[in-house]
Design goal:
about 170 residues; 8 helices; globular
Length: about 170
């Protein structure tokens, strides 16, 4: 996600092609949303396809994965990944260079994962949202509604801020 998504806008600045791209009769918002959508497709489609394949193939190894539970967990994971893609999009709109954007995103992910691993700091980590306990609760019929809504709201807010940042940005 970090290196694919970091180039959504920052690559244009890096390669000095932003002026050409944004001089065309296509709005900046459309460019941002189409590129964001492409990254979402590249990241989320394999997750969904893998989950569906696992359901179909589970019978071959004498296991049974329920469609509802598996697709529910997949949807929740996709919300988490979408939130990370939105964060990447936002950072790409701020960064002047793709490498800088990628390094910032990797740094945030590593710091968050380090917090996740340290007892007592785990609640400060984004990765607590996809802890195994969350998925076990889903198996028990307890859907993480608050976390799901929070991820959707955070993602939408990051996209709105990214759009505004891109509209204010002068290349």
């Amino acid at each position: 996600i970090a290196f694919i998504g970091s180039g959504i806008i920052a690559r244009e600045s890096d390669q000095r092609t932003a002026e050409f791209l944004f001089s065309r009769p296509i709005s900046r918002r459309r460019v941002l949303m189409v590129r964001h959508g492409a990254v979402c497709t590249l990241v989320l489609a394999p997750v969904v396809l893998t989950s569906i394949s696992a359901i179909w193939l589970s019978n071959a190894v004498n296991e049974h994965l329920e469609w509802g539970l598996t697709l529910g967990a997949t949807f929740y994971m996709c919300l988490f990944l979408w939130m990370l893609i939105c964060m990447t999009t936002l950072i790409s709109c701020w960064a002047a260079h793709q490498l800088t954007a990628g390094a910032v995103i990797v740094g945030i992910a590593l710091l968050s994962f380090a917090f996740y691993l340290v007892q007592g700091l785990g609640d400060l980590s984004l990765f607590r949202l996809i802890d195994v306990r969350v998925f076990m609760s889903m198996r028990d019929g307890i859907w993480p509604w608050a976390e799901s809504v929070s991820m959707v709201m955070a993602s939408m807010l990051m996209l709105i801020v990214a759009d505004r940042q891109l509209n204010r940005r002068d290349f």
